[in-house]
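Worked Example 4.2. Read the sequence first, then its C-alpha cells.
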Amino acid sequence: MTKYPSDLEIANKAYKKPIAEIAKIIEIDEKHLIRFGDDKAKISSECINSVSKKENGKLILVTAISPTPAGEGKTTTSVGLVDGLCMIGKNAMICLREPSLGPCFGMKGGAAGGGYAQVIPMTDINLHFTGDFHAIGAAHNLLSALIDNHIHWDNQLNIDPRRITWKRVVDMNDRSLRDITCGLGGTGNGIPRQSGFDITVASEIMAIFCLASDLDDLQKRIGNIVIGYTKKNEPVRAKELNADGAITALLKDAFQPNLVQTLENNPAFMHGGPFANIAHGCNSVISTKTALKLADYVVTEAGFGADLGAEKFFDIKCRKSNLKPDAVVLVATTKALKMHGGLKKDQLDHEDIDAVKKGCANLGRHIENISKFGVPVVVAINDYVTDTKDEHNVIINFCKNLGVQCKISSHWEKGGEGAAELAEEVSRIADSNTSDFQPLYDSKLSLWEKTKKVAQNIYGASDIIADQKVRNQFKKLEDDGFGEYPVCMAKTQYSFSTDPLLMGAPSGHEVPIREVRLSAGAEFIVVVCGAIMTMPGLPRVPAAEAIGLDDNKEIKGLF
C-alpha cells in the first residue's frame, strides 16, 4: 500500500505566501492587517466596517453524517472544496473554527484539515495561534474571580453560593478539575463552596464571542450572562457585578477575525470555536459575515453530524444573525457508512456492499432533515484509498433515488484538483437561487415544544420525556422571560438517539431530558439529553506523548 506523508510533513513542506498577498486576493489593504508573523494576521475592525455595505456572496455549509471512529473528514472536505472552487476560477474563501488545545493533546486531533486539504501554518493554528482562546479563558475566569470577590466583600447582591452556575475554565483536558471545592484555607481565602472547571470551548463567553455582531453587542451579551441566583432564587447577571466592561476590554483584540491560507494559498478565516455539544459549534458570526462581503463563495462548517451541527447552524446561528445559506454539502465516507451498517472498525478495509447499503439509512435521514430547512444539498463522498467503485456506486445510486447529486471528492490526496467536480456542482446549486431557507420552528413556540420538534423532526423520536423537576425548569425559564430563545440540544453526536451505540437511523425512540441550562448572554437554552461532558479527560495514551521537538527544534508528532 502507498505510504502517504503525515499531515504535519505535508504542512511543513508547503509554500506559504506572505499574508499580505493572501489579503490582496480578497482586496484587503495591507494597512488593515494586524500581523502575527508573516503568515497570519488579524483584520482590523475598520476593514470590517468598510466592507459592510457590499453585496453578500453565496454561503455554503459543510456538514456530515453521524460521526464514527472511522472518520468523515468534514473539515478536510471544507478546505478541499474551497481549493476546488478557486481551481475552477471562482472567488472563494473558507471560514472555520479554531482548534482547542485539549483535543490536540488528547485523542481527537486538530481542526486544520488533513492530507493535501489543510489550512496553514498548521502547528501554529493547532497550538497557541493568535491567542484568542487564552483571551476567552482569561475573560471567563475574570468573571469567576469577580463573583467570589463580591461574596467575600459583603455580598450586596445576596448571591447564594449554593446556586452559582458559573464555573472556571482551562483549555485542556483535565478530568481532575471537573468537580472542585474552592475557598478553603481560612476567611481570607473566600467562602468555601463546590464548583468546577469546564474546557474553554464550553464557556458561554466562547458562544457569545461567536454570536456577537460587534463589540457593543458583545458587551451587552456579556452583561446579560446569568452567573447564578440569589437566596430568593432570582437571577444575577454579570452587569450587576460591573463585569461587562472589563471582560469586553480583554476580548477587544481577539474579536478581530484571523486570516490564514490553505495549502493552495487561498484565503481562510479561522475565528472562535464553541463546543458543538454544549453550544452551537460554529465559527464567529463576524468572520462569516465579513467573508460574505469579500468573496463570491464562502464555505463554512458546523460541528459533528447534521442532526447537531447543521440544526444549530440553522436554528441558532442563521436565525440570530439573519444569515441565509445557499447550499449544503453533506460529507459521507464508505467506511463510516459501513460502520452504520453494522461493521466493526477493524472490518472496514474490505469491500462490503451490504453494509454500505444498510449504512445509507443514516445518510438518507440526514438528507431528509436538511430538506426540512429548505436548503438544497449535495452529497460528497470523501474518497479513501480502500474504497471500491461498487461501494461508491451504491451511495451515488442511493442519492439519485432521492433526487440528490452525489460527487466523489479526492481532495485529501489531490487537493483542489480532486475536489473540482464537487466544486462545479456546489457552485451550480448555490447559483441556482433555489434555497428557501427557514428555521425548523417559530420562536414563539414554548421551549418544550421547540425541544419536541427537534427530537421528532430531526432525531426521528416519538417523544421527549422529563421528570417534574426538569419540566419546572422549562416553566421557570419562560416565566423569567427567556421563552423565545432557541434551544441548543446537547446529546451524543454518535447517534440520532441518546444512546451512542445505536447507530444507523433509529426511529420511534424517546429522548430523555436530563436538565436545562440557561445561556442568557448567548441567548439560547441548552437542553441536556443524556450524559454530556463539558470537561473531557485524556485517553490512556494521550497524543501529547508523541509531540515534541526534532533535531532541528521543529515541532514533531502533531498528526
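Now turn to a second chain, presented in exactly the same format:
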Amino acid sequence: MLSSELALPKEFVDCLGIEKLNPPQEAAIKSGLLEKKSMVIATPTASGKTAIAEIAMLRHFSDGGRTVYLVPLKALASEKYKDFKEKYSKLGMRIAISVGDLDSSDEWLGGYDLIIVSNEKMDSILRHGATWTRDITLVVADEIHLLDDISRGPTLEIVLTRLRDITNSQILALSATISNAEEIAEWLDAKLVRSDYRPIKLYHGVFYPYMLEIDGKEKREIAGSDDLEVILSKDVLKMGKQALVFVSTRRSAEATAEKIADKIEKLLDKTEKEELKKIAKGVEASLSIATKQCKREASIVSKGAAFHHAGLVAKQRELIEEGFRKGVIKVLAATPTLAFGINLPAYRVLIRDAKRYGSYGSEFIPVFEVQQMCGRAGRPKYDKEGEAILIAKTANEAGELKERYIDGEPEPIYSKLSMESTLRMHVLALIAAGVTKTRNELEKFFSRTFFAHQYRNLEEVMEKIEKILKDLESYNFIKIGKGSFIADEFVAAFDLGRDVELEATKIGKRVAELYVDPASANHIIKNMKTKTDIEHLLVINQCIEMRPLSGVKRKDYERVEDELARSNINAPDVWDTEYDEFLKAFKAALMFRDWMDEIGEDRLLDIYGIAPGELYTKLKNAEWMFYSSSELAKLLNNKDMANDMNRLKLRIKHGVKEELLSLVRIRGIGRVRARMLWKNRIRSIGDIRKTNDRLLAELLGPKVAENIKTEADKPLRKIAR
C-alpha cells in the first residue's frame, strides 16, 4: 500500500516520509487505524511501530484533536520530541514536552496538539485535575510491555485506566513481540496487530571458544587469545561495522569497554582518531572538575569504544550516543537498561552476561529482556541484516543458551499493580482527586485495571486496599464514613456489604499532589520537629523514594558507626533486624552532607562508590523530598521547619555550605566559582556589582565575568534560580 493512498492531506503524507507502507503498517490501516480504532501493535524492534503512531497522530491533528504520547523514560521523551518537532512543526502542529515538576497541572499544555509526557508526569497531571486532559482524542502508550515492570508498570496501568475513564480517546499501545498481547488488547478493548515483520533481517547465534554459530547464516572458527567479547568486537570492526555489548553491571561495562578499546585502537584511521579526541575532550569536561570516571571514559572513547550506564551524567551520555550514531565510536559496552531506552542500533549485538545476581543468587535473565537486547541489532538505512550473539564459556552452555533464548518463547506480561507501596500512592490519589468517593467506587475503578482483567478477580487487591484505607486514615490523610471508623467497625461495614464514604483531608490531598508515598509523608510529618541537618537528611533517606545506597561494607562500618555515635541519633540495637537498613540510610545521609559541604564528585565516588550520574539522580530526588517536606510543614503551620527544609533543598541543589547560597543563586555561578569568589571576599550580589571588571575577569575569565556581571544587574526575582 502506498502512503499516497492514505486518507490524509498530501502535505501530511509528505512529512511522514514513507513512500510505501510495510506489512504491520498496512495491517494497522486495514484494521481501522484511520477510523480511530484502538489497537495494540506487537511487532519486533525497528518494524515501523512509531510510524503507525505518527499516522494516527496526523489523522487526529487533521480533525483538530489532541494526542498524548506516553513514554517510560525522560530520555525517550526528549528523543521523540526532537524527531516530531523536526517533522511536523512545519504543518503548524504545536508540539510540547513535559517530564519534570511533579507538582503542577501544566495547564499551559492545553494549547498544544501533541503532548509528549513520561508516564509519571501524566499521572501527576491527572492528580492535579488538569482540565485539558478531557479533550485528549488519541493516547499513544509506547513500550506497553513495561506493564510488567515492577517500578514503572503500575503507574502506566493506572494512567491508562484513568484516561479511558475520562476520555473517549483512541488508544494505541506499542510493544515488542510478547506472548500475551491478546490479553492486553482485550483489556484495552482494542484490536491486535501482530507481525514478525522486520525490515532488517535478524540472525541469532552463539559464540563459544572459538566457534561462531549463526542460525541460517554461517558456522566458522574465530581464533584469538583475547576475551570472547573482544574477539567478536575486533571481528565486526574488520567488517566496517559497529557492536553493542550487553553486560550485567556498571563495573563490567567499564572494564569491558576498556579491554575492547585497547585492542581496537589500531584498527582506526587518522580521521576517526581526530574525531574521537574531540568527543573524549567533551566527555572529560562534562563536570566542573573531571572525576576518575570521566577520565577513564575519555581515555576509552579516544580509542574508539565507550561504556554506557546510569553513572554517566546527561552531557556524557549525549556525546557518547551521538558519537555512536555517527559511527565514530565503534563499540559500546552497556548495562541492559539501554535495551529499553533510546534508539542506538548496531550491526552486531553481543550478550555476554545471560545471568545476574537476584534474590536467589545468580539467575538467568528473562527471555523477553534478551529479545529486547537482540532487537538492537541491525541499523536502519545502513544494514540489510543484523546479528545478535550470545556468548558462552563452553559448547554445552552455548546449547543451553540457544534453547532458552533463541528457540524459547518470551514470558507473558503480568500486572504488578498489587504491590502494596504502589497501591498506597494510587489509592490516595484516586480519593484525593474525587475519582472514587466510596469504597465501592474504588473497587469499581480497580475492576477496570489490567490486574483485574488478567486475574479475573479483585480479592487480593481489595484485601490490600482495605488495609491501606485504614493506614491512610491513621495518617489523617483520609476520612472514612461520616465520622472516623475504628478498625473493627471498618471491617464490619465491609462484611455487611455496606458502602463507606471516602474523603481526602486537606493534607491528604497535598500529599497526593506532591507525588510522594503516603507512608513517606507520614514518616516526615511524624519527625517534623527541630533537628540537626544530619537528622533531617536521615529522615528523608528513610523514605522509599530515596532508595538508599548499597549496604555498608565491612571496611566502612567503623567510619559510619563513629559518625553515628558523634551524631547522638538514636539507632536500633545492632541485633535488631532494622539495624542494617538504618545504617544504609545513615550512610546516604552522610553522603548528602559531604556533598553539601562541597566535597567533590571524585571523592564521593571513592568514599561511597556513587558515580556522578547516579549522584545527580539522587540529588534530584533529595531536592524533591525537601521541597515536599517544606510544603507539608507550611500546611501544618510550622514556618521554622518549612524554612529549614527550603535551606536544605537549596544546599542539596547547589552542593554548597550555607554561606554560599546568595552567590549560587546567580546564573553562571556554581559551587566552584562561588567558593573562589568567597575566598576573594566577593560574597554577595552587591559585592559582584561593586567589583571591578578586571578582577572578575582574572578570577573567572572574561566571558564568564561579563555574563555574571550582567546577571547581577538584573532584578533579584530574575536572578534567583
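Notes for the reader: The first helix runs from residue 10 to 16. The longest strand covers residues 201-208.
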